[in-house]
Amino acid sequence: xxxxxxGPIPNEIGNLLKLESLGLGENSLSGSIPVxxxxxxxxxxxxxxxxxxxxxxxxxxCHGLHNLEYIDLGGNNFSGAIPASISNCSKLIEIIxxxxxxxxxxxxxxxxxxxxxFLDLSGNNLTSESSSPExxxxxxxxxxxxxxxxxxxxxxxxxxxxxxxxxxxxSVEWLDVGNCGLGGNIPDGIGNLSNLVFLSLSDNSWTxxxxxxxxxxxxxxxxxxxNISLTGPLPRGLCxxxxxxxxxxxxxxxxxxxxxxxxxxxxxxxxxIAFNRLTSTLPMGLWDLKGLxxxxxxxxxxxxxxxxxxxELKNLTRLDLSNNQFSGKIPSSIWSLENLDHLSxxxxxxxxxxxxxx
Length: 358
Fold this sequence. Notes:
Strand content: 25-35%
Low-confidence stretches: none
Number of helices: 1
Helix content: under 10%
Order of helices and strands: EEEEEEEEEEEHEEEEEEEEEEEEEEEEE
Largest sheet: 14 strands, parallel
């Protein structure tokens, strides 16, 4: 990487007719991309990420880039549409355009890129090309048989997540559709994506509850369902996700109890179900999860005493049980949580004295 370059990209770069890789990322370059770069037929990698570049992509941008496999323009100020002709770069494996000002529809033609593995269009002003969800972006992406990474969050896609989401390539490992203005039910087909390790549906307006088909995501490590208007109880299907490391369900309307089978989540390190309507005692199995590092169950209607077994969570660094209805004494075993750096038990009905050994 060449550091601290400023000003425009020299037009003369387009004269390097044998160049295969151009990496100018993480500088302070400005202006537009010289037209000559789009005629470099030998170019396989184009990395201009994290600069101050602007302008629009030419409608025939792939006319000369026959061998392009990797394009990263993320973290710039590009605007205008993503050309439908991008599918003419048929060898593309990675498309990275995050955090720009691209607008207009995401072209369904991207679904013709059968070698595509990595797609990051997050943080723009992009919409869906079709008003029908079953013929829109996610349906078109079912043609990308090698796809592993999909990140389209923070775009006004609106509409619903189609049933066809379950027909995406079995190779998909990462799916981020957070803050996309999506609504309706979370499709049952989401459980077909059995190789997912990361799933974010946060900051949307889903209706209903999490489908029980989620149990099919046996490799899932991170589940982000923050602020999505979920109602109903926590699905028992969550208990089958034994690879889960982070579970975030804060700011919803989830009611009922924390399932006792949560003790099956033996890989769990981060648990956040704050700002919901949970009404139960804490299941004893929760304290069997010795890998827990952060627990936030604040602002619910949880009740009952705090079990002495909570002192067994030796890896715990943050514990927030505030704004609930817990009663009884603070267990003296809390002193053994020697890695704890944040503890809040505020606004409960706890009684007695603060343990001296705290």
